[in-house]
Amino acid sequence: MRPVLILFAMILATTAFAERPDFEALVEKYEEQAIADRRWAHEHAELSMREFETQAWLRENLAAIPGVEMVEGDWGTGVVAMLKGGKPGPIVAWRTDMDALPITEETGLEFSCQRVDTLRSGRVTGVMHACGHDLHMAVALNMTRMLSDVRHEMPGTLLFIGEPAEEIGAGALMLLEAGIFDEGRRPKCALALHDHPTIPLGKVGSHTGPATANVDGFVLKVKGVGGHGAYPHKSVDPVSLAAKMILGFESIVARQMDVNHHCVISVGRIEGGAKSNVIPDEVVLEATVRSLDDETREALPEKIERLVNGLAASVGAPEPELEYYMGTAAGFNNPELVDECRAVFRRILGSENEYTYPAGMGGEDFAYFGREVPGFQFRLGVGRPDREMALHRSNLDIPEEAIAIGMRLAAEVVWEQMAE
């Protein structure tokens, strides 16, 4: 190569490197604010579709960020905004979830949530950010502040998605059906993170391909003929029939499904009868059905229906009533997008802190964004050595040091996708 070309290439490389903002300094600038944001969100946790105070808080903070434009639409309790860069480039979407869970908090934190709400069932419950959505919002909000500071050099546009009702699997579809990707807002890709206590603080996890499960389920009414417990031969016992069905569900997974295509059927509720010596007329079961691929998902309902009808017929019971529903779709992390983000993780945290996790049976409706455009949701380590924690547990106390790490990773991967 001629010397002048070599020099020109070096200048281009140096310029490209210099154009990457000093995100480490920007994290330091906004970390204290991010911690305060997380604490506010935690203390003011709200249930799905009731995120009114959270929505107002996010809107107020986003509108105050220079360069941010609020996008009005039929978003329910969600929030949508855009931050346009000073240089041409693609739109990159970042999703944060907003809702909390019907769990009474037991962390003892000074900013623990004291809210009490009533579910549709009539049950009164505490409300808690026991899945880390408070951290997710703090990361997303302050990543936006960081990008605003360098917006004149930013080579693209950030689409900020504040998604309500993630915990009930309703928010993403609602936003998509309302046209969040319409009117020139269709992004190059959609990104998100999720805190995870199984990954130690300071590490980040990712998975290529199918990453979260299809979350389906059913309500089953097992019918019988009631009678006296002393004379079971004069009745048709739906309790023992329901027990056979539960064991039968396990045999579907173990003996009728390809072991290379993971699935699970778990009965989480069984209700029937009122007294020990009275055989009831009916037992109700509720179950969750999880799978990782569409072929397995589509095969399971027929096998479950065949099993319950066959077992009922075998004891002369009336035909059961099976109400089967399809819930949240399985999540798929785009392989190319994962590889590009992993390179960023290794550059920032080191290869020793970049972790590959196996696909799991948990659900996440971020999957719907990933079915519209290439998507990737990674896991931010929040595991603590001093205590065992789990998501959806009343003692979840996330180490606040994770917020700064999340801000840095989020800003860096968004910038890299714009600059690609």
Q: What is the spatial order of strands in the main beta sheet? A: 1-2-6-3-7-18-8-17
Largest sheet: 8 strands, mixed
Give the SSE string: HHHEEEEEHEHEEEEEHEEEHEEHEHEH
Number of domain modules: 2
Rg, Cα atoms, Å: 25 Å
Low-confidence stretches: 3-18
What is the CATH T-level topology of the largest domain? Aminopeptidase
Helical/strand content category: alpha+beta
Portion of residues within helices: 25-40%
What is the number of helical segments per DSSP (H or I, 4+ residues)? 10
Q: By CATH's scheme, which homologous superfamily of the largest domain applies? A: Zn peptidases
Can you give the mean pLDDT?
A: 94
User: How many beta-strand runs?
Assistant: 18
Q: Give the overall shape, derived from the CA principal axes.
A: elongated
CATH architecture descriptor name of the largest domain: 3-Layer(aba) Sandwich
Question: Termini separation (Å)?
Answer: 26 Å
The first-level CATH class name of the largest domain = Alpha Beta
Strand content: 25-35%
Word description of this protein:
The protein is of the alpha+beta class and 420 residues long. It has two domains: 3-212 and 330-419, Aminopeptidase, CATH 3.40.630.10; 214-328, Alpha-Beta Plaits. 37% of the residues lie in helices and 25% in strands. The protein is built from ten helices and 18 strands. It has an eight-stranded mixed β-sheet, sandwiched between helices. Strands 12-14-10-15 form a four-stranded antiparallel β-sheet, covered by helices on one side. Strands 4-5 form a two-stranded antiparallel ribbon. A hairpin with an 8-residue loop joins strand 1 and strand 2 (79-84). Helix 2 (23-43) packs across helix 10 (401-419) and helix 8 packs across helix 10. 42% of the residues are buried. Residues 3-18 have low confidence and may be disordered.
